Amino acid sequence: MHPGLARLPRAARLLVAGAVAASVVTALPAVAAAPKLTCTGSPTKALPTSKVLGLSGSYVLPAKAPTALVVFAHGYRSWSGAWQQAMVEAASKHNAIAVAVDYRGLRSADESHGGWPAKAGSEDLVKVVATFAKACRSITTKSVFSVGMGGDVAGLAIARDPSLFTYWVDVEGATDLYDLWTSLSAVGGVCLPTGTCLPGLDTYYASTRSDLEEAAGGAPYAAKAGYDALDAATQLRAAPSLGLHGVAVVHAVADGSVLLTEGAELRALMQTKSVPSDLYAVGNGNGGPDRTIPSEAGVPGLPLAGAEPDGANGDVVIRTGLGALWRTVDKGGAKPSGQVVPVNG
């Protein structure tokens, strides 16, 4: 204590001490409060998720109280920004909050958004849905739309929290990593531990397999536990029950890497869990893209099935998936009911 303060009456000493404490508090820098998550806004304006979720990505709010939440789970070598058009459509035409995030561990744009961060991504999707559903009580439907690797991410998220999601629309979903690794090995060349891929039928698929092996800890025969932990089909099969009201599986008949059998397997798995599931089998009847083997494999100029970006500019596979998505969130929309639906391009 300062010597001068000791000679003051006790009440005076308390007043002086209080004044000193107040001056210290005033001198401290102000700590900004976390922004409050609102449920309505401009349906054409994308807002950063970093401010409300701590995750890179964006979200779009409808003009009135939302009845649905739509989460876009992007595919391999893609990112949240690929889904801006569909997010605006969700908010402006379907009264839904739309969210897309970049999975934690996703590589930078300079590295083509590579990697297979499915585990972290599944945790991110759960956080997205839990956060928005808690903040916006008017939401009654929670749908996830996944593409390619996003199918693995979404499947793991649903297995992690089976009661959180209402509907799942899976497009070209990589939901069986064992089958995926086999088909990638048939098309791509061998990738060395250094990351260099030897010439094969297509080095893109060799790179995909390399990223998958890095995430799982090696090839399936050497890292079964790693694959089981990352494999959506394995984890969904182990779940005692699922709260999903329906699943729509959209797959190209001639997909050369994520085979149609994966889509059929996912539908069959959902049936064992008593989840109504539709399979949209997309063919190439009118010249539309329905396969993922690119020009290096002898199909000049044919784009990848289910390729991002999204929306009306997407191929027939993406458009079919989005149509199924909007029906899950719209009042009176046809929900999955156990059908196999052939679709011509």
How would you explain this protein's 3D organization?
With 345 residues, the protein is α/β, with parallel strands linked by helices. It has 2 domains: 1-31, no CATH class; 37-176 and 231-344, 3-Layer(aba) Sandwich (Rossmann fold). It is 39% helix and 14% strand. It is built from 12 helices and 9 strands. The chain has helices at residues 3-6, 10-27, 50-53, 84-94, 118-135, 149-160, 177-187, 203-216, 224-230, 232-238, 260-272, 316-329; strands at residues 47-48, 57-60, 68-73, 96-101, 141-147, 167-171, 246-252, 277-283, 340-344. A 9-stranded mixed β-sheet has the order 1-2-4-3-5-6-7-8-9, with helices on both faces. α5 crosses α6 and α7 runs antiparallel to α8 (203-216). The chain is globular. The relative contact order is 0.11. Mean pLDDT is 84; it is low at 1-8, 10-33 and 293-302.
Uncertain spans: 1-8, 10-33, 293-302
Could you tell me how far the N terminus lies from the C terminus, measured between alpha carbons in angstroms? 85 Å
Helical fraction equals 25-40%
- Give the spatial strand order of the biggest sheet: 1-2-4-3-5-6-7-8-9
Structural class: alpha/beta
- The multimeric state of the shown protein is single chain
Mean pLDDT across residues:
84
What is the number of independent domains? 2
Write down how many β-strands occur, each being a DSSP E stretch of 2 or more residues: 9
Instruction: Fill in the CATH topology of the largest domain.
Output: Rossmann fold
Instruction: Count up the helices.
Output: 12
From N to C, what is the helix and strand string? HHEHEEHEHEHEHHHHEHEHE
User: Beta-sheet strand percentage?
Assistant: 5-15%
What is the CATH architecture descriptor of the largest domain? Answer: 3-Layer(aba) Sandwich
